[in-house]
């Protein structure tokens, strides 16, 4: 009798367990609890929780070829995630050219929440974020009517220990703002935002780099406000007034410097470990453009977007391009891997050389003849006789509109002039 009961006990336990599981499911359903139903396509308002405040950006999840592709939306600009992966309730956006990711879990209410891992000089920076579907507004859900125009060109000056002047370029349409800020060191890329009463706010985020610019219009005609980025502990104050024709109100988008030496030379390994020297035979009698930058530098991404196809188009005429990469780390293997990802994103065929670590000390070590570089990107122009003819600093990216057209036209004119010269 006891042995029979012992044989029946496992079966009885299974029946009880199944009944308890069914009861739990029933109670869950009755309590109104809802399970996440996976990542859904659609438009979301994504907010990153920076230490100083939130940065909003549009997120558009689109079905393309039966799979979801993610786009970060800053006004009219749509930045496609280099990789979008959906696994059940998990969404992963990867930007390997920056070495950054955004990983989120779908929630029962259809929203997404997770952590962005952004790459900075001191290492990865985790940032919490959330994305709510169906919200098209950026800063103000119900904005007040604008009390004054924000659109136009403004001379903006940041305050603090290292003030910098730049051009705030804004287009305004029915309270919606798009634009950028061009500093001598480069532009802040695509800003998008809104006006509400006498206040306004703009933001940008490209998968790794981002900033928020909040301001207010005052009775004296000035704009005043604050801005912050992902790692800022306190905001930076700024003030702006309408740009005039006065010399003091002019900002040079791309600087031009006289070379301190007539010739330079260097030898560094490319992203696959092969040594490349400026004195190699393939560069003899050629015009050589040396693009000094790094994968961490957003303006270097914009320069590569222009330079990669340009180099291919004019190679047959005698143009060669070399990229000198000064990265966040002095680990050659990591810098090489990062540079390969960068080259893949922009279809770069010219060599990217691993020149060392970014910053004053690293750049001086890499280019002692130039005493290093202070602005990224910095571009060197070398003629067919091997002479360093001029140096350009900074970049005006596509977000700057006419400034970008002017900069690329001047670049093309300079290269054409050098190509026309005899070796």
TrEMBL record:
<dbReference type="GO" id="GO:0016209">
    <property type="term" value="F:antioxidant activity"/>
</dbReference>
<dbReference type="Pfam" id="PF00578">
    <property type="entry name" value="AhpC-TSA"/>
</dbReference>
<feature type="domain" description="Thioredoxin">
    <location>
        <begin position="257"/>
        <end position="420"/>
    </location>
</feature>
<dbReference type="InterPro" id="IPR000866">
    <property type="entry name" value="AhpC/TSA"/>
</dbReference>
<dbReference type="InterPro" id="IPR036249">
    <property type="entry name" value="Thioredoxin-like_sf"/>
</dbReference>
<keyword id="KW-0676">Redox-active center</keyword>
<feature type="signal peptide">
    <location>
        <begin position="1"/>
        <end position="36"/>
    </location>
</feature>
<dbReference type="InterPro" id="IPR013766">
    <property type="entry name" value="Thioredoxin_domain"/>
</dbReference>
<keyword id="KW-1015">Disulfide bond</keyword>
<dbReference type="InterPro" id="IPR050553">
    <property type="entry name" value="Thioredoxin_ResA/DsbE_sf"/>
</dbReference>
<keyword id="KW-0201">Cytochrome c-type biogenesis</keyword>
<keyword id="KW-0732">Signal</keyword>
<dbReference type="GO" id="GO:0016491">
    <property type="term" value="F:oxidoreductase activity"/>
</dbReference>
<dbReference type="GO" id="GO:0017004">
    <property type="term" value="P:cytochrome complex assembly"/>
</dbReference>
<protein>
    <recommendedName>
        <fullName>Thioredoxin domain-containing protein</fullName>
    </recommendedName>
</protein>
<dbReference type="GO" id="GO:0030313">
    <property type="term" value="C:cell envelope"/>
</dbReference>
